[in-house]
From TrEMBL, chain B:
Family per record: Belongs to the extradiol ring-cleavage dioxygenase family.
E.C. numbers: 1.13.11.2
InterPro entries recorded: Catechol_2-3_dOase, Glyas_Bleomycin-R_OHBP_Dase, Glyas_Fos-R_dOase_dom, VOC_core, Xdiol_ring_cleave_dOase_1/2, XylE-like_N
Taxonomic source organism: Pseudonocardia asaccharolytica DSM 44247 = NBRC 16224
Keyword vocabulary terms for this entry: Aromatic hydrocarbons catabolism, Dioxygenase, Iron, Metal-binding, Oxidoreductase, Repeat
Cofactor(s) of this protein: Fe(2+)
Keyword Ribonucleoprotein: no
All copies of domain VOC, residue ranges: 5-118, 145-265
Reaction it catalyzes: catechol + O2 = (2Z,4E)-2-hydroxy-6-oxohexa-2,4-dienoate + H(+)
Entry-linked Pfam families: Diox-like_N (PF22247), Glyoxalase (PF00903)
Protein name: Metapyrocatechase
Length: 102, 304
C-alpha cells in the first residue's frame, strides 16, 4: 500500500490491517483507540479496496463516509493494492529509523 | 445518607465474545449471568451481583448506576435532581437484573445516571469469614472492583454543580483555565472518602472517557501492564502517576475501543471538609500524567 501525501510504500501481509502494517514498518500516524471505537484513525482510500473482518459501529463510521472512501485504518484490511491519504495536517513519523532506514 | 459508590457501568461493545475475553480473562472479572447479546460481570472483591453490563451493538456508555443507602435517599435525590432541572424517571425492580426500584436521571451532560438501593448480594470470592487477602484462582489482572468513571461534558462546571448541589458529592480536585478566570475544565468528585467516584472533563456531551478498575498498588499496575502486552491490549498511556488524585495508572482500550483504566494508590481521603485542589490549564498535563507532563493526542480526542 502507498501512503499519501508522503508517497511511502509498505507491504501488508494477508489479513493485516492498514495500522498493523504501518506499525510493523516502524511508522506512526494519528490513531486513537486502535480498536474501531473512536474514528480518530480515519484515512481516505484513494485507490483500491479494503474489507472489515470485525463489526464497526455506524456511530464511528457512517455509510456516507464509507461511500466517500473514508476508512477506519485500525480495522480496514487491504484486499487489493491500495493508496490511502492521511488526514489533513497528519503525516507519517518514523519511530524505528535504525531498523528501517529510508 | 449520601450516595455510596459507583455500583455498575453499562456499556455497549461491538463484539460480545471479544469483550467477554477482555473483561473476564484479561481483567479477571467473573461472568455472573448471560443472555443473548448481553453479559453481566463482577470483580472478585465486589459483593454485589454485578458491576459491569456489556451489551452487544455499538460502543460507548449506556448508563452509570450509583448505589445509595436507603429508599429515602432515592426520593430525596429524585426531588433534588428535578429541582436542579433534570428530567427523571422511575426504574422498576428487575429492569436492571437483580436491582431494586430506582431513579433514572438525565444529568445536564446528557448521560443517564441511575440510583438504586438494592441489588442481590452474592459476596466476594474470599468471603466475609476469616478471609484470605486474595483468591488463589484469580485470572489475569484480577481487578478488585470498578472504582470510578470519567465522562465528558460540554459544560463541566454545570455537571460539577449538579453532582455537588443535587447529589451531595464534594469536589476533590478541579481543573480550571487560570486563577483569575476560573472556568471549570474538569472536576474530580467524591461521594465517599476516596478521591473520586465520578469525574468530568470538557468534551462532547453524553460520551464516556473511561471507567477504572481498582488495583492494590504500583506493583499490581506493572503486572497489569505485562498482562496487557501478553494479551495484545491497546494501551493509551502509562504506567505512570497522576498529579490529580496521586493515583498510579495505565489507560487502555477494550476490544471495542471503550477506554479502561487500572488505578491504584488511594492518594488521600476526602472528608466532606476536604479543601479542593485546583490545577490550572498550563499545568494540566502534569496533573493528568505527572511523570512525562505530556499528553498524547488520543487522551483528549478519544471518547466513546
Amino acid at each position: 500500500m502507498t501512503v499519501l501525501p508522503d508517497g511511502v510504500s509498505v507491504d501488508a501481509e494477508d489479513g493485516e490491517t492498514v495500522l498493523r502494517a504501518l506499525s510493523r514498518a516502524g511508522l506512526r500516524y494519528r490513531v486513537g483507540c486502535r480498536r474501531g471505537g473512536c474514528g480518530i484513525c480515519k484515512v481516505r482510500l484513494v485507490l483500491g479496496e479494503v474489507a472489515y473482518e470485525r463489526p464497526i459501529a455506524t456511530t464511528v463510521l457512517s455509510d456516507e463516509e464509507r461511500i466517500e472512501g473514508i476508512c477506519l485504518s485500525c480495522r480496514a484490511i487491504p484486499i487489493t493494492s491500495i493508496a490511502i491519504e492521511l488526514q489533513e495536517g497528519d503525516r507519517l513519523r518514523k519511530v524505528l529509523g535504525f531498523a528501517f532506514p529510508a | 445518607m449520601s450516595v455510596m459508590r459507583l455500583g455498575f457501568v453499562h456499556i455497549r461493545v461491538t463484539d460480545l465474545e471479544e469483550a467477554r475475553n477482555h473483561y473476564s480473562n484479561t481483567m479477571g472479572m467473573k461472568v455472573v449471568h448471560e443472555e443473548p447479546g448481553k453479559l453481566w460481570l463482577k470483580c472478585w472483591d465486589e459483593y454485589d451481583h454485578h458491576s459491569l453490563v456489556l451489551e452487544e451493538g455499538g460502543v460507548g456508555l449506556v448508563k452509570l448506576g450509583y448505589k445509595v443507602q436507603t429508599k429515602d435517599d432515592l426520593e430525596r435525590y429524585e426531588k433534588r435532581a428535578q429541582q436542579f432541572g433534570c428530567t427523571t424517571g422511575r426504574v422498576s425492580a428487575g429492569e436492571n437484573l437483580t436491582v431494586g426500584d430506582g431513579v433514572a436521571i438525565s444529568v445536564p451532560s446528557g448521560h443517564r445516571v441511575e440510583l438504586y438501593d438494592e441489588i442481590e448480594y452474592v459476596g466476594t470470592d474470599t468471603g466475609a469469614l476469616n478471609p484470605d487477602p486474595w483468591p488463589r484462582d484469580g485470572r489475569g489482572i484480577a481487578a478488585h472492583w470498578i472504582d470510578h468513571a470519567l465522562v465528558a461534558a460540554d459544560d463541566p462546571g454545570l455537571l460539577e454543580r449538579f453532582f455537588t448541589e443535587a447529589l451531595d458529592f464534594h469536589v476533590a480536585e478541579r481543573a480550571i483555565t487560570n486563577i483569575s478566570h476560573p472556568e471549570v475544565l474538569g472536576s474530580w468528585m467524591a461521594c465517599g472518602e476516596s478521591p473520586h467516584d465520578i469525574a468530568v472533563i470538557k468534551g462532547p456531551d453524553a460520551k464516556l472517557h473511561h471507567f477504572a478498575f481498582h488495583l492494590e498498588d504500583w506493583n499490581a499496575i506493572l503486572r497489569a501492564g505485562d498482562i496487557m502486552s501478553m494479551d495484545d491490549v491497546s494501551v493509551d498511556i502509562g504506567p505512570t502517576r497522576h498529579g490529580i488524585t496521586r493515583g498510579t495508572t495505565i489507560y487502555f482500550f477494550d476490544p471495542s475501543g471503550n477506554r479502561n483504566e487500572v488505578f491504584a494508590g488511594l492518594g488521600y481521603r476526602t472528608f466532606p471538609d476536604f479543601p479542593t485542589v485546583n490545577w490550572t490549564e498550563d499545568q494540566l498535563a502534569k496533573g493528568i500524567v505527572y511523570i512525562s507532563r505530556e499528553l498524547n493526542e488520543a487522551f483528549t480526542t478519544v471518547f466513546t
